[in-house]
Amino acid sequence: MTFLAAVKDWAQRIKRDVVVVYFAARNPATPWPVRVLAWVVAAYALSPIDLIPDFIPILGYLDDLLLVPLALHIIVRLLPTEVLRQSRTQAEAVLSRPRSSAAAIVFVLIWVACTAAFAYWLYRLYQH
Questions:
Q1: How far apart are CA 10 and CA 31, in angstroms?
Q2: Residue 52 in contact with residue 62, Cβ under 8 Å?
Q3: pTM
Q4: How many C-beta neighbours within 10 Å does residue 64 have?
Q5: How far apart are CA 106 and CA 4, in angstroms?
Q6: Phi, psi of 8 (to 5 degrees)
Q7: pLDDT tens across 43-97, in order?
Q8: Dist. CA 122–CA 2, nearest whole Å
C-alpha cells in the first residue's frame, strides 16, 4: 500500500468515525458522559470553525490531524459494544447512499437566489 493510499484510507476511517460518533451521541443507550463528549466532538468535527484557525502555519492543522482523531478514538473505545455496532451500521447506510447531483444543484441555486435577494435588499436599503 502506498503512502497516499494509506492516508486516503485513514481519512475515510476518520470521516466514518465522525458519523459513527454522531449516531452514538443520538442513541439513548449511550452513557450520558460519553454522549456529551460525542456531541461535542461530532459538532466540532463537522463545524467549519476550528479551535486553532487553519491559516496559522503548522498549528492550524494540528487539531484536525491529532485532536479530532484522538477524541474519536477515545469515544469509540468508551461506547458500549451494541451502541457501536448500531452506530456503525447507521453510518455505513448513510455514507453508502448515492449523492444526487440534482439535489446539489438545487441547493446551490437556492443559496444563489438567497444571496441575490439579500444583495438586492441591501442595495434598496442604502439607495436612499
A1: 27
A2: yes
A3: 0.65
A4: 15
A5: 34
A6: -65, -40
A7: 888 777 766 777 777 777 777 788 889 999 999 999 999 999 999 999 999 888 7
A8: 52
Coil, helix or strand at residue 57: coil
Q: b or e along 28-60 (b: 16 or more beta carbons within 10 Å of the residue's beta carbon)?
A: eebeeebbebbbebbebbeeeebeeeeeeeeee
- Of 11, 14, 37, 15, nearest to 24 (Cα)? 37
Boundaries of every domain in the chain = 3-97, 100-128
- How far is C-alpha 109 from the geometric centre of its chain's CA atoms? 23
CA distances from 63 to 16, 22, 86, 112 (A): 18, 19, 28, 32
C-beta separation of 44 from 14 below 8 A: no
Q: What's the rounded Cα separation, in Å, for the pair 118 and 110?
A: 12
Q: List Cβ neighbours of 25 (8 Å cut-off, separation of 6 or more).
A: 35, 38, 39, 42
